[in-house]
Amino acid sequence: MKKILKYTVVLAVVAAIVALVAFKLTANKKEVEGKVYHPNVNLTATIQADTIAEGPFTEATQFLGSFTPNREVAIASETSGKVITVGVQEGSYVSTGSLVAKLDDGVLQAQLHSATANYDNATSTLKRYEQAPNGVTQLQMDNARTQILTTQAQIEQLKKQIGQYTITAPFGGIVTTRNFDLGAVVSPGSPLATLTDISQLKLEVSVPEKYVPLFKYGMAMQVSTDVYPSVAFVGTVDMVASKADASHNYTIKVLVGNNTKNPLKAGMYGNVTLGNLASAKAISIPRSALIGSAQKPEVYVVENGAVKIRDIETGGGNATSVQVIKGLQAGEVIATGGLVNLTDGTKVTIK
Asked: For domain 63-69+196-278, which architecture applies?
């Protein structure tokens, strides 16, 4: 009897706990539902709308890319030696032929002086032989001439080696990195500095294959950048890739002149515009009618006094309109304004 009573009490407690939890969950659900926005399907929204028509469409397509230097090179030493003169600072501009670094060439200079003395001596010896009336053999004459040629070759070789100890800039540009200091010992091939030429820059863009035939070498292009939104730069197509990447896009390089008033830098983003591509017959809609995302564009189609969401496929576009390749037909009506209060099935009146 006591066990039955005990079990009864336990069951009653469990039932009370379950009931309390259920009550709490129900209360929370009502509270959450009360905070969730539920559109009123009976509410009529006022919109602006357009009737779709098929007609001429001018496409202006932009391609985004980034600027790269016109030329960039890592300046390296051709020989080993100790740096005795530093000619550049990081971030400074240098002109063609400017000194980058001077290595210690004292030993080679001494050898050059010795070779020059030997050459002078050999020249004097040959001159005496030629002026001597007799007593000089042909062998002595030949040896004197050979000595002159040998010392000439030594002098030329030493001058070439000494020239390698003076490292200069191959073209004008900005020293973007410097990897050496005074007293450093460098070895052949070790990069001393990076020289970047941004007097001109190349805007590199990836272009889908259907647009590639429209780019021609040497054609002028309009280039813009968000850094200077009101400035229009003029570029020239410098390269059209002959091989596509894995996405079937082709690299186009547009050469753009730099200036001091609106200076461009390597790594900035830029846009190149391919405009005035006219289609004789196309369906286009205002950009204001688009909802959804770039990967899944949608529009509101007006049917029987209400709007329905419809998926579409878009093509090219311009500043105000976008071409619709699939999903809409001429004669249909789409919402172009007042979209903020719309959901699928909302009743509408057209303003």
From this structure: Beta Barrel (2.40)
